[in-house]
Amino acid sequence: MHSPLATKPLPAAQPLDAAAPTPDVLLTHTLRSLLAPLGGSNGSRALAAAPAGPASASALSGGGRQSLAPPPAQHRPSLSVLSPVLGPSRRTSSNTLATTATADSALSNGGSSSSAPSFMQALTKSLANQGGPGGAFSGVAPPLLPLSPAPQGVLLQCCDHLQRIFGMSADAFEDAVNSVLDVLMPDAVARDLEACHLLLTTRAASMLDPSDFGKPDDFESWRAGELVVVEKLVALTTGRPPSYLALGDPASLAAVALTVVEARGLLAKDKASGANNPYCVVEHAGRLFVSHAIEHTVDPRWVFQVPLILSPSADPVVVSIWNRPTGFGSRRSSQIGRPKEAFLGVCFLPASSLIAWSKSPSQQLQTIDLARRSSKSHVTGTLSIHVVPATAGPVRQKQPGAAVPSAFYALPPDTRRYFYEIYRLAAEHDIITAGGRELSEISRTILHDLSSSWRVGPVFRDMCAFDIFTKLYIRGFVPADVLYNEGFSKAYRYAVNVNATINVPELAIFRSSSTALSSQIEYQLGNFFNTIRPTADEPSSPGTRTPQVLETITVMVSAMQTCHLINDGNQEVDVTEYASNLLLQSLRARYHGLLGIAHAQSNKASSLPLIRLVQSIRDDLELYSRRFDMILFGRLHLPSLGAKTLYEPVAAQLEEFAKTYVAVSPDMSDVFDLYAAVRQLQVVCEKIDFRLADRFPMSSWFKSFVRQWLERSESKIREWVRNAIEVDECVRLSDTVLHSTSILDIFTSFQQQIDFVRSLDWPNEAESQLFFSRLLQEVCECISRYVVITKEKLLQEFSELRSKQPVKRRETTARIGKIKIKIKTPKLKSSKTPESQEVHYRFSSKTCVRLENVNSLFPRFEELVRTVPHPRGDQPRSSPTSEGNLFYGDPRYTVRVTIARGHRFTPMRPWNTRVSCRVSSSTGRELGRTSELVQSSNPQWDERVYAIMSEREVSGGLRFGLVHHVPGRSESLFAVGQLHVEGLRAVMDMDDGLETLIQLGSYGKLLVRVHVSRIEDTNFLVSMTEWVTSAALDGFVECFVDQICMDVRDRVHPITLKYKTQALTNFMNKSKLFQRGDDDSANSVDQDEVAADLAPFFDFLNANLEILTENVEEELAFRIIGRIWNRVVEIAEAMVVPSLGEDPKERKPWDSRRFQFFKLCIQNTESFFESDGEGLPATMIQTPAYRRLQFIIASYEMPRATLLETYEQYKQELLVQLRQQAPMHPAVQHQQENSRHVRDSTRAAQAAMGNGGSGGAPPQVQKIDMSDLDWLLKLLKMRGLKDFVDSELRERFNLA
């Protein structure tokens, strides 16, 4: 079908996206314009944003946005030329520098000047012989760089955003910014606007010309307004009018593009290279331009173009050449510490000659002899220049590839084409790459400032937005409402205004975009009413249009049909659209008639009006289906149109009714009568179009009371949890029930909610299960919240206990029957009786009850779940969107992530670094993390993370981050990998979930399994709650252990110093001259003295453990005390041997007497925790950490040679067993390791203890684990073999 839009003839115009500038050129001009902003006041920014034209003067008084960059600071003086001809000495602080620009394409073929010497050549040669006019060239000096400061504030944010827009690396973008800042002065844009003002004044050229306007008066109006705005901008930025106004009549001035083509025959002055690294500097009227350097040549070719505003009487142009020293890089961002740059020559160019040459094609290329700056200068060679009249705006020429003689440096030669390109890149980045719905604020800031500097009017900006967002809409990246808000409404604001002036390029963009948008909307509307149903094996697709989108599309179509710039007004109306509009109007009228009848009949029958309305609509649709089941005009199905049209208002009525019912509680029988009527209407609509059945959200209409009750209950449950904790006095309920009232209160509330939902006995079991699942989910979240609040209060109470002073020992109360553990102090000598001793209590009965509260959460939750009815096996599983329609619109899923193990991880120093895995969603929400393991090549976690995620989060994928935990430092995210869940239904159908390897950058891989199920999966909620409570209980246990073990080392270490042998005594004991009798007598330690010294420490432990065992059940108490014992062992080991990490200082072995005390201390501590069989069992005493400590004690006094021999023997046995293992796939290896039993190390411990440090046979090592040798490595490190230990650790990781 042809488009309904009839367009008028349009003048030929080149598309804006044709021959787009290269990214490098576009970025360079963008940075120049942003880094050299217009004036820093609000008034200047308001002026910059003002449109060009007669109305611009009124905009000058308005406010504006703050400038991005701060006012320009003073810079170091640059090149100055002191000459009687040039005037008095001057050094500018606002010079503008330029980098390389292109010249006319003819220059690439070379050229020569006229055969006869010109006046300029004669003058330059004369100056060279004299050392410059009056010897003033001696003041010529190289420029000092950089000239602009680094960006800050909003300007820095703009630069960061440009880096992302252009997709550049940080280093490359920083180099690009620095290369611009090096030679850029803050008034660069203002200088370009001066050239623009001159070209507009003299009518030589402009960014637009008369052919771009429909009427000559429109061009003159635009030109006059632009002159006013540009002049004000220059004045606000520089503090003065355009500088060329002081040079005389503008008609006598000229804007030229001077190109320094090349130099030949330069004198070699670079000692390092034997040649030169020459670059040229052009100075005129306070402006300074610096070219790039050509390395290792005496015949450089720059083709360096600079714009100049000249008058016949203006100061001459000075071109100087300098050598950049070899080895100092191509950039000159700092001259500190670098050799002096050698002078290579200078040229003196009168302005009148340059103007004359630019007007004569035969004289545009000149070759000039280089002059000296003093009589001592050594200069040779010539300089070739090319000068042509400069222009502004797009150049319409026959050779599109030829260079443009631009009058600008900071501004691009064709500002509109460049602005369109940067607008397109910004929009594609913000919407396609970053996933936004519209332009970001920082992109708007950049585009606003560029449009101000580049003199791009608001009409053109909005037309660009219309064209760009139309293309994004056609490609499917933006919805219709974004297109309407960002582009369509702005562009049509000018189209409907008959007084608005739209030039030819803007009109071309508007018409082409409107034509493309019209074709796209026609396609969408045609598919919106498409009645072709899918085949039997193809599922029905839901509607792809929302009422908002349809309304937006309708508004845009109507606007395009009535726009005077597009439609001639004679276009015939489309019959199909006209008929559909009439049918829609009649259906709406029919609905209002049925509504009036329903209200009239309900008043007589005292029933709900909505019931009669639904029944009437059902009867009408049955009539349409029987008599008018046909397709009109090839695409208009009347029953479908009737069903869709009548559905919308009745749906709104039902939505309103559901809200009203909750508020006033009408009779329940009327509600269920209405439910039956709506169900019958749903059946009729499904016969007409089966897709309409999905548009009946029964849950939101007839279960609104349940939904509102659930929502209210959810907030109430959270409130109940907080109140239950606040009023809880943390006193156990009885001798057998160890938790407090808060647990009883919250689970009683939970049970009441379950009983209410169960009493509904809702006929749809799938929906009923969703109710239960949603309620259980809220219970699970409340449990998590209960844990968080309880932990906060526990830590607060622990902090208060630590700050309290020691008190007298309390009398223990009778232990309850279910607690059998009894820790008692060993029979040690003490000067005080237990009753008179003062003890620092770290535990209280209140903290123990809080621990028991957390311990009882999961058992109580299991009891609650058992009261929930289970679905029958013959019930169909609910659709993925049913839960979303019932509750919050976005389907939610339960996700279980199993982090199995790492694969070929790259280890990092220090060697005792621990690693954990953090799992988060694509939105950055942390789902959970694993425990910390000592880093290895293949760490094995086999831990699970549970989460409830929305469909969007699941589709966005999961992120896995490897976190490094270095002792003494904060954790750091080291490597990141991502898993995209493609084919959600397929993953949900997998019984074992999706198993895959995640690439963590170059660090290695991670084996994970992802299992996704629906939210109504009660088993998942149970597993998730168990995971939450188990992790919480582990955290609480660690808090208890940290609380009592925080100062164990501070309590024991000072006692060990008492037994430390002084240096002189140690020397006397070792010397033969002072030996007297038995050597062991000097190192002997009195056991009674040791017992007396350790008594306060054991009293402290015993008093606190009594509090624990009185208030915590036996199994949990054993668990905490076992962890305390293990922590004490670890602290003891750290006291006598160094770690395998980076120790700040070298650890030396303890002397014999001090170590004898240490062994007695460990023996007494073991006896304390055993408590004559009433404490910890032997299985909890003989932990791996304690066996490792026993090895260390047994081998502590071995000579270094014996330790090395023992280590090598152990190592060889392990390597032999490692070589016998064949490599296998990580998944197979993972399955085998799950079934592999752990080596029993008891035999090795007994063997080591039996040797007694005498260097006997080493214990037999059966498990293939190189970490079993860590205790030996610690001993070797203590013996001064740190380098050997590091080498062995590195070899171990390489082997793994």
Automatic annotation (TrEMBL):
Gene3D superfamilies xrefs: 1.10.357.50, 1.20.58.1100, C2 domain
Region listing for Disordered, in residue ranges: 54-96, 868-887, 1226-1261
Domain MHD1: 672-790
Pfam families for the chain: C2, MUN
Basic and acidic residues compositional bias, start-end: 1233-1242
Positions of the MHD2 domain: 1091-1207
Residue ranges of domain C2 in the record: 237-365
Organism superkingdom: Eukaryota
Biased composition (Low complexity): 77-96
The name this protein goes by in its record: C2 domain-containing protein
Organism: Polyrhizophydium stewartii
